[in-house]
Amino acid sequence: MGNKNLVIIFSHCDDDNKRKILEDNIQVIKDNGFDILLVSHIPIYHKVVQKVDYFVYDKSNPLLFWPERGMCHWKTVYLKEEAYRMDTIFPDTGWTVFNQMLISGNLGLSLDYSHYTFVNYDIRFTPSILDAMRDPEDCYASRVVVTNDWNGEGEETRKTFFPGLVFNILSKDNLSKLIPLISKENYINGYGGDDIEFDGIDDFSHNEIRRSKYHDVENYYYNLISNFPFKIHPELVEEKCGFKPVGERGIEPFNFNTHTQAFKINIDENTNNFIIYDVDGHINFNINGETINIHDNYFIDSEKIGGITSLGFYDLQNELIDLLLKVEGLKKSAVTRTIRKK
Predict the structure, then answer these.
(1) What is the DSSP annotation of 32-61?
(2) Which of 158, 162, 54 has the alpha carbon at shortest distance from 109?
(3) Distance in angstroms (rounded) separating the CA atoms of residues 121 and 240
């Protein structure tokens, strides 16, 4: 053991690209003389496990589902005289991170290390990050910047999160004090979402919160590390992958039409209302047996027409494509979809 700073890697590498990124980062860490504890909620190839010093496999992967907690994405669609907000709520993955922190942190404390660097498998290592790992602070936080297509609509935007969960350092003493503070009940129902205010830092997304429930995993972690004096890494930290909100079977957050790019359609699973938008040209729809030509954003009020018994559109060969086949699958999924008038 050459270095007393143990690098703990959080991972959930469910495709070849993520596995390749994990292997590359393991090599970077090893090349810089650090021991590694790898934790995963899914199995890891044996050749990867052989490259690390410690490995924990916990298959529980404790996602939280709405209305307990969820990760909400929203989009507004405008009609001529009104607007509708679509909300898509994915299962909350935040607690899975703290689950991995608890498991790996407790094991790490039993080992002979003075500091623990927690990183996500896809962190983009830089010279300044590696320097911070070589001379670790007792409580070190970071800002994480992610450029991503958050709404699954082909529109990438940049978001900064503080404190990010991609790169953090804790001393043995601070980690031993922080772990007992991590509580699933508090993460779900606790209050403490104060404004986050630091001199010179104004590029994070949580400064609108005051004494509310925890907005997200970063807001909860901020309240944990606020129990200790901490320093902040000077540069923004980046991920190589990031979060891509894609539902089951390739269905986008606000569009379950996988047949054509000519229009998008979404459903409110509670009211069975539909909204058709981003229509390219004139398209004939069949709604409850009636053919309707739609060329602009269009809202279908299920209650006003006595419920939806059939819904489809005519393709370029004038064949009727049934859209209700996907609806039953959507209603059984772990993702919640709603539409409401603004």
Answers:
(1) TT--EEEEESS---HHHHTTSSEEEE-TT-
(2) 54
(3) 9
- Tens digits of per-residue pLDDT, 224-255? 998 999 999 999 999 988 666 555 545 678 88
Task: Give every strand in the sheet of 311-314, ordered side by side.
Answer: 290-294, 283-287, 311-314, 320-322
DSSP letter assigned to residue 250:
G
Domain positions in the chain: 5-67+92-238, 248-341
Query: Residue 59: phi, psi to the nearest 5?
Result: -80, 5
What pLDDT is stored for residue 274 in this prediction?
95
Tell me what pLDDT residue 155 has: 66
List residues bridging with 276 in a β-sheet: 265, 298
Per-residue pLDDT reduced to its tens digit, 136-169: 999 999 999 877 665 555 566 778 888 999 999 9
**Residues paired with residue 274 on neighbouring β-strands, in sequence order:** 267, 300
Q: Which CATH architecture has domain 5-67+92-238?
A: Alpha-Beta Complex (3.90)
Tell me how far the alpha carbon of residue 73 is from its chain's centroid. Answer: 10
What global pTM score does this model have?
0.81
d(CA 219, CA 195): 9
236-273 exposure pattern, b = at least 16 Cβ within 10 A, e = fewer? bbbbbebeebebeeebbbbbbbeeeeebbbbbbbeebb
Q: Which long-range contacts (CB under 8 A, 24 or more apart) does 277-286 make?
A: 277/77, 283/313, 283/314, 284/313, 284/314, 285/311, 285/312, 285/313, 285/314, 286/310, 286/311, 286/312, 286/313, 286/314, 286/320
For 180-226, how does the pLDDT look when each residue is reduced to its tens digit (9 = 90+)?
Answer: 999 999 898 877 654 444 444 333 444 443 445 777 888 889 989 98
Mean pLDDT of all residues in 50-57: 96
DSSP-based three-state secondary structure for 80:
coil
| CB atoms inside a 10 Å sphere around CB 20 | 12
Confidence category of residue 178, pLDDT binned at 50, 70, 90:
very high
Residue 148: exposure state from Cβ atoms within 10 A (0-12, 13-18, ≥19): middle
